Automatic annotation (TrEMBL):
<keyword id="KW-0594">Phospholipid biosynthesis</keyword>
<dbReference type="InterPro" id="IPR050187">
    <property type="entry name" value="Lipid_Phosphate_FormReg"/>
</dbReference>
<dbReference type="Pfam" id="PF19279">
    <property type="entry name" value="YegS_C"/>
</dbReference>
<dbReference type="GO" id="GO:0008654">
    <property type="term" value="P:phospholipid biosynthetic process"/>
</dbReference>
<dbReference type="InterPro" id="IPR016064">
    <property type="entry name" value="NAD/diacylglycerol_kinase_sf"/>
</dbReference>
<keyword id="KW-0460">Magnesium</keyword>
<dbReference type="GO" id="GO:0046872">
    <property type="term" value="F:metal ion binding"/>
</dbReference>
<dbReference type="InterPro" id="IPR001206">
    <property type="entry name" value="Diacylglycerol_kinase_cat_dom"/>
</dbReference>
<dbReference type="GO" id="GO:0004143">
    <property type="term" value="F:ATP-dependent diacylglycerol kinase activity"/>
</dbReference>
<dbReference type="InterPro" id="IPR045540">
    <property type="entry name" value="YegS/DAGK_C"/>
</dbReference>
<keyword id="KW-0547">Nucleotide-binding</keyword>
<keyword id="KW-0479">Metal-binding</keyword>
<dbReference type="InterPro" id="IPR017438">
    <property type="entry name" value="ATP-NAD_kinase_N"/>
</dbReference>
<dbReference type="GO" id="GO:0005524">
    <property type="term" value="F:ATP binding"/>
</dbReference>
<keyword id="KW-0444">Lipid biosynthesis</keyword>
<comment type="similarity">
    <text>Belongs to the diacylglycerol/lipid kinase family.</text>
</comment>
<feature type="domain" description="DAGKc">
    <location>
        <begin position="1"/>
        <end position="135"/>
    </location>
</feature>
Length: 296
């Protein structure tokens, strides 16, 4: 059975890899007998409107070709529908694709795998996080890491990841805890002094930092990682362990699980899937089976 699928492309992802990756991905789908149309927006709002129009028009699948930022946009178009999402991961972080076990920065392999999955009906329902009117697939970040993003986004120099390295150093110099108010499900409000609080539907953010290593996007729950008030020395000692997920064994780190999380702290911005969401307070919910995905 053939169908038309829609490639949702970010031409600037991975320093131009998005545009280049669309061709081998499209070739894999056409080889499997699918018609392919491509959607490229003039900006984020236009891209989302075009993706939603493709879903409303009955496309057989929406395939995001780019990084986590484009996947985040794609989720806004497909969440709550029966249109499956595929991901050809060619961005910098690729944490959503990593959580699904999809190929990273190999568009031909990813396209072939997704085409096979679509042909064989290998589609599964996964949970999403929802904060306000926004869906997210990986992690909602707040505190120290969101302050780093805030600072990095304000910097005009240097370009690329280097400015975020400088932003980390600047935020370390200004390190202080944030007075959080946290409520899990219908429990009591907890007041904690914390360096950061991350709410994970998936395990990682920032290109493989496993901040919520036990998070499972199919268990109906969110993992909440709380890093308590700690010194610069402690934070620098614990930080490398995030890539292995072993930071959760440190006494300054606690992990909770809940279907609903209320999060408040003054002067703190939240980021979801690496994209700015808005200031706290926020209520975050896990929505079971909110998205259909193509994959292994």
């Amino acid at each position: 059975m053939t169908s038309e699928i829609t490639l949702f492309v970010n031409p600037t992802a991975g320093r131009g890899r998005g545009a280049r990756a669309a061709q081998p991905a499209a070739a894999a789908f056409r080889a499997a007998g699918h018609a392919v149309r491509t959607v490229v927006g003039e900006d984020a709002a236009d891209a989302l409107a075009r993706a939603r129009a493709a879903v409303a028009g009955g496309t057989g699948a929406l395939v995001a070709v780019g990084g986590d930022g484009l996947v985040h946009l794609a989720l806004q178009a497909v969440a709550g529908t029966r249109t499956p999402l595929g991901v050809v991961a060619v961005g910098t972080g690729n944490d959503f694709a990593r959580a699904l076990g999809l190929p990273l920065r190999d568009p031909a392999a990813a396209g072939a795998l997704l085409a096979d999955a679509l042909g064989d009906g290998r589609v599964r329902d996964l949970d999403l996080g929802r904060a306000g009117d926004r869906w997210f697939g990986t992690v909602l970040a707040s505190g120290f890491d969101s302050r780093v993003n805030d600072r990095g986004n304000r910097m005009r120099w240097p370009a690329g990841r280097s400015k975020y390295d400088l932003a980390v150093l600047a935020e370390l110099a200004a390190l202080r805890p944030f007075p959080y108010r946290l409520r899990l499900d219908d429990g009591e409000v907890r007041e904690v002094e914390a360096t950061l609080v991350a709410v994970g539907n998936g395990p990682s953010y920032g290109g493989g930092m496993r901040i919520c290593p036990g998070a499972d996007p199919a268990d109906g729950l969110l993992d909440v990682t709380v890093v308590a008030d700690c010194s610069r020395t402690t934070l620098l000692r614990v930080f490398p362990r995030v890539y292995r997920g072993t930071h959760v064994d440190h006494p300054k780190v606690t992990v909770h699980r809940a279907a609903r999380v209320e999060l408040a702290a003054p002067d703190v911005t939240a980021y979801t899937d690496g994209e700015p969401l808005g200031p706290l307070p926020l209520t975050v919910r896990c929505i079971p089976g909110a998205v259909r995905v193509l994959g292994p």
